[in-house]
Amino acid sequence: MAVKVKRRTPNRSLYGDLINILVLAGFAMFMALPLVYAVNNAFKPLEELFQFPPKFFVRNPTLDNIRDLFTLMNSSWVPFTRYIFNTVFITVVGSGIHMFVASLAAYALAKHQFPGQKLFFNMVILALMFSPHVTAIPNYLIISKLGWLDTYLALIVPAIAAPLGLFLMKQFMEQIPVSLLESARLDGASELTVFRKVALPIVKPALMTLLIFSFQSLWNMNGGTFIYNEALKTLPTALQQIVATGFSRAGAASAIALFMMIVPLSVFIISQSNVMETMSTSGIKD
After folding, report:
1. May I have one GO cellular component term (predicted)?
2. Which CATH number fits domain 89-223: 3.40.30.10, 2.60.40.10, 1.10.3720.10, 1.10.10.10?
3. Per-domain residue ranges for the chain?
4. How far apart, in Å, are the Cα atoms of 39 and each of 61, 258, 259, 260?
């Protein structure tokens, strides 16, 4: 005799889903307000930028702010492409090495036992408590003693040792089942192969999240404390010098804010799908 299985219908309603969508849409619009405001400011003429009370949306859009920015860029005695190259090089190299070092160290901390393991991780947690302003003077003294002033290393090396990346990757590495790693070792895979072909694909969401944090931090880094050579300065430093002349450059400053926001936002949009992945999409199934 066949037994009929009663299907369980989900306890959902059309009106409930509609309310949820409206509430989430309201929160999304509220969170998008700073982005919309920055875009509108970039196309406001000077009289609207200094209007009080300020208007949220632009009334008479203009491209004068962007033209003024490019004029100021071309008047610099150092080619502006040099500033862009410095920032892109520091951001790409620093983020790439930081992701590799943080994931490799996190794998050792999470999946291997060695003397001083807990002490080392406690030091990483302790480092998270210090503000960058507290460590600014020690960093400068160390970099000065190493002879790294006026070099890319002054900005790249401290970014590689950022404790947040190691903490994030270590916490995510602990979720990897030990049995999965042991299976790869029994198949003859070396430890580096296990890390590269088994562990890294599983922690890809955390790795992409770390990429967003590291990229944003390095892209917006001023670096004026360590870099004095004009040809080695970063893009944020050059843009700050442009708008430091006074209120007449307020339009260019609005265009700069939009320009500096586009690249990190693009990286986030590209990486968003990977960040939202779960452990189940990486080959681990119940």
Report:
1. plasma membrane
2. 1.10.3720.10
3. 89-223
4. 11, 6, 10, 12
